[in-house]
Design brief:
single chain; 318 residues; alpha/beta; UDP-N-acetylmuramoyl-L-alanine:D-glutamate ligase; four-stranded mixed β-sheet; 10 helices; 22% strand
């Protein structure tokens, strides 16, 4: 049985500063200037975006990641703290920049990115910190694929210890390709909710359908797979044979940045509240849907109650 903890969730991994602008139809030639409607700064990344959203959904959240020693780090830490997130385990690494991305959001919601890898390449979780890192019943590892030091054996040791301590482990990744599978497959026996996009799931498994992708990861040890399918909704598969495909909500999409991270946060909040599988998927979809209606990885989310209202009132696609 898991021991008593001080946090609801610990979110480990990739923390990024996103600089977003919309709508961007073209980059001006030479030194020209175009005018756009909106520019935002957000804490993003497969851990950063998720921890902001879990905090907005009312969870006591612990951030475990790294920033650099620049002005971007000041803003990231300030923003995390503004949302009531415990930043005591955020590492500040000398001599490197904070990981950051410039995103030019096209009118159709596509988001070509320019990224500086920065501090996340230097982030690690030494065993001496395990007692503090695992001070939550739910452990989310997000950003595998862009965590140079943590990817591989260090992540395996981390998740093995999480399960040994009775924690529920949720997992997402980024920039997945066929090579990423080499890093991810050994982790699967220690993951309760494996939550990539269907594109990532296909890329790593070589399978085509959500069912075939799920079978591949379940066969390699995952307890459950939860795939985001974009406009086609979400798919859940458990090793006990449960399968569930839920259609997407019918919403007007502004920007898809951070929708996967928001979906992760919604699933984590649903697990925290003990929702059943169907309600958990719906709540996660509503969380992602709210983000899609605005600019940036935390747009639209205000509270657990407001997200629950959206889940219950929004229509699904026919």
């Amino acid at each position: 049985m898991a021991s008593a903890t001080h946090h609801d969730v610990a979110v480990i991994g990739l923390y990024i500063l996103d600089i977003l602008g919309r709508p961007v139809s073209r980059i001006p030639e030479r030194g020209g200037v175009d005018f756009i409607d909106e520019i935002r700064l957000t804490v993003a990344g497969t851990a950063g975006g998720t921890v902001i959203d879990t905090a907005k959904l009312g969870l006591k959240s612990l951030a475990v990641g790294a920033v650099g020693d620049d002005e971007k780090a000041d803003w990231v830490l300030m923003t995390l703290q503004k949302h009531g997130i415990d930043t005591s385990l955020m590492q500040r690494i000398k001599g490197v920049p904070t990981s950051a991305t410039i995103l030019n959001i096209r009118p159709n919601g596509e988001r070509p990115a320019l990224h500086v890898r920065g501090a996340s390449d230097h982030f690690e979780v030494p065993p001496a910190l395990y007692d503090r890192v695992f001070d939550a019943p739910i452990i989310h590892l997000g950003g595998t694929g862009l965590l140079k030091r943590l990817d591989g054996p260090a992540s395996l040791a981390l998740l093995r210890e999480a399960k040994a301590r009775g924690r529920t482990v949720t997992f997402d990744l980024i920039a997945a390709n066929a090579e990423t599978a080499r890093i991810v497959l050994p982790l699967l026996p220690f993951i309760d909710y494996f939550m990539p996009s269907i594109e990532e799931a296909r890329e790593m498994s070589g399978q085509a359908t959500p069912e075939d992708c799920a079978r591949y990861y379940l066969d390699h040890g995952a307890a459950a797979c939860v795939f985001t399918l974009g406009g086609d909704g979400a798919f859940y598969a458990h090793r006990d044979g449960t399968r569930l495909h839920q259609k997407a909500f019918d919403i007007s999409v502004v920007d898809t940045t951070g929708c996967g991270d928001a979906f992760d946060a919604g699933m984590i909040a649903a697990i925290h509240h003990g929702m059943d599988v169907e309600a958990s998927l719906r709540f996660a979809q509503a969380t992602a849907g709210l983000v899609a209606t605005g600019l940036g990885s935390d747009a639209g989310i205000t509270s657990f109650e407001d997200t629950l209202r959206a889940m219950k009132s929004w229509k699904v696609k026919s």
